[in-house]
Amino acid sequence: MKLAHLSDTHLGYEAYRSVSASGENQRGVDIARAFVRCVDDIIEWDPPLVIHSGDLAEKPQVSIRLMLLARNMLTKLASIRPDGTRRQVVIIAGNHDLSSNRKEACFLELYRGIPGVHVVCDDYKVVKFDNIENCPEELLSTHAHCLPHDTLKDMAIESRFGEVVPTPGFTNILVAHGVAGGSGLYKRVLGREYPIPTDVVMRDWEYGALGHWHKQGPISGGGGARCYYAGSSENMGFGDLRDNGEERGYLRVEVKRGNAPVVTPRNLPIRTMFRLPAIDASDKTPEEITTALVSNLDAARAEKKLAGSIVGQNIVGCQREKWALVTTHTVRQSALESAMHYEITVVPVPRVAEDGVTAAPRVQTDVMTLLRERAGAVLQKQEREGSLAVCETLVTKHMRTVAPEPEEEAAEKVAPEATVTDADAEKASA
User: Which one, out of 115, 176, 232, 331, has a CA that is 20 to 30 A from the CA of 127?
Assistant: First the structure.
């Protein structure tokens, strides 16, 4: 049996100030386009079952436009196939789909009435496909065991994970949104989330369709478990680059009872996002740092990597006082002639406390990036550029440091607009 597994589409995610021709946030358009591209590709492959393992949307308050887009895409996925059967779709709620007020209904409930679409939001549920009109024959002996994100807490507190067991004599698919025991994500957010227990993950599933982590691939390197994260369909920030940054799309899965699944990543085109080579500023003057910034941009431009891309530049080993003397305005202007977005992240020299203990380095925000984000929204172009030139002069004299959470502790923190640090861009577990 074939099935398509996608996850973490995050419709409604926005970042940076670039806008599309229609006036929408360009990253929002990119995210929606990635979802549509996945749907079209799945239709062409024509599996009888499609699983979305959570975080369809970036936030529970979804715009009407995106609600309609999601409805159209789910309806398309659950369409009649060439053989006359109806493709079945299972979708569960991720943490981003759910309101913090658990009394509020999840917007996914709106899609329950679509023929062939099975929505699970608020409790453990086994989706059974028998007695469904025009159901593909291979699904009649298939059960999908669904664990939405909020259910994990309830089941942990109530000691109910013993209920989540494969049905004898059926092809059993685990569908869950959360941190899987044994995964790399588990170590990064240990103690801050209710995980999917390792023993649940390792039960005799034909396949485990997981969502929450944007990294695409099996848990534990595939060591005996048959559970995979589909990853996100697009990058949600620079933090995603370390998690298979250019490998975005969905998973094509072939399942046979009693056998390990055959999983093939189906990676589709996305907007290019990359970091330029890090600059070690420890032995450089402010002028030499500027020269290095320009050199990195020129190299990327020569390789034709810059046009339309989202570009990050790390600077390490830079004293706070030294960075205050670096002029970045013209560098940024040059980058944005081609790139969609350009940002600089500065990691200063570690601070040494009075007791001699070296403290963790604080990440210094590129203040000019923030100023450009704000100015772009309220000032006309001519006025904006003149104002920014004055601002840069002032910033170099009066630099302020922003100290976000350390990257390893910021797995769920996402800036609503422009992100200027790895920590703010981290979306691995969002």
Answer: 232
